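Quick question, first post here. What does this chain look like in 3D?
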Amino acid sequence: MNNFYRTGIDLGGTKIESIVFDSRGAQVFRKRIPSPQGSYTDTVSAITELVLEADKHVHEITKVGIGIPGALSEQTGLVKNANSTWLIGKPLKLDLEYCLKRHIKIENDANCFTVSEAVDGAGAQAHVVFGVILGTGVGGGITINAKPLRGINSIAGEWGHNPLPWTNEQELNQNKCYCGKRGCIETFLSGPAIEKNYYKKTGKVLNVENILALSEAGDLNAQAIFNEFEIHLAKGLAQIINVLDPELIVIGGGLSNISRLYDNTANRWDEYIFSDRINTKLVPAQHGDASGVRGAAWLWND
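> Answer (accepted):
Ran it through. Tokens below.
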């Protein structure tokens, strides 16, 4: 087999990470730097420098895949739906290809996460995998045979900006989302949502880690917060199963480390799923916060 190298880049809000795999899938290089804030030009420069450093390390021109917190418009090729707002409307793929003098692949970061877990992570060997990102926001990605499903509008898997199903009108109306709508799943299932709900119950400002610790210590308000969270997660994922029917749902992001979510959610979703038997598995990401950058490299898994 001819040896070749894949470089993955994970462009996050606070850091940019690179990784290089050889043709056997072994990691040979990895580096992390702070993300430039507010500057598109500096972001392009930082990514370019990371890739060229990876090339220099392996003495080859590597194949480059990049995960971004948004998507490329199928119509214009420009970035859309990006949390890092300075990327929106920019020709990121064209500019990076000009700087790097090669063809590159760019995918939504949730798609990259799901690819990583489908290739050699928790979803290896599964035909259809739905990847969930639960953190400061809520994202999702879909793979079929370990390939990302982008969709004709480049929004496949974006379940976070659908309304939470099987809930009441009051809950939907009181949860305003940054996208301009109310009742989005993201307003129920993100870290900030947990902190907001705890504040509404107690008047106290605490982060998720402290609320979880209180719950484990027997605090009734904190326990109620996570019970509600698991009911909402069960409803949201039941809708995914009813539409997509994946073999496996894998969770990443900061909230994926909350171990109680998995059994508790799976025990609650039966009443919402239109089937007499539920075979879908709900599991944490095997590669943790490395899944995004790994998946970007695996975009070249042809």
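Residues 116 and 295 are 4 Å apart (CA to CA).
The radius of gyration is 20 Å.
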